[in-house]
């Protein structure tokens, strides 16, 4: 029984660490959030905190995964995945530190296949591209999306616009990330709308 209790306490502590880390990165920023700050906030030493993760980079990946779970659980008001992407990007303006973390990891560190975040980003892009491609095919089937567009290419372009606008937004917060994502969607639907 003691072993089972220890295991449950370990899971609870890991969840506490992730919740605190997610909140701190979102509000303070990726660069201003240290392992020491997170450890202090949850009553652990830095070594004690890293006992729950293989490395600092593994912690960052776990934070991104937690963010994804929270976003998936949120009730987004969106008629399709393109609109959902715009809603998520719009939400990201409320969590600039997480945008900074995403950009830093995806555009630099995680491009190295040996980095712990590499597999995470590959999986994310593949999953998003696949879901969006299927959604765009459905939109083509019911006449809401131009038929001369390749759904997979459109999905890739929308993801690229989303990521690129996040980088621009970090330099200039007056840039409306979601507006640009929605622009690509409107362009993809323009011919259909014009005929209606």
TrEMBL record:
Stored Gene3D superfamilies: Tetracycline Repressor, domain 2
Entry-linked Pfam families: TetR_C_6, TetR_N
DNA-binding interval(s): 34-53
Descriptive protein name: AcrR family transcriptional regulator
Stored InterPro entries: BetI_C (IPR039538), Homeodomain-like_sf (IPR009057), HTH_TetR (IPR001647), Tet_transcr_reg_TetR-rel_C_sf (IPR036271)
Source species of the chain: Curtobacterium salicis
Keywords per UniProt: DNA-binding, Repressor, Transcription, Transcription regulation
SUPFAM superfamilies given in the database record: Homeodomain-like (SSF46689), Tetracyclin repressor-like, C-terminal domain (SSF48498)
Residue stretches spanning the membrane: none
Domain of life according to the entry: Bacteria
Keyword DNA damage: no
Sequence ranges assigned to domain HTH tetR-type in this UniProt record: 11-71
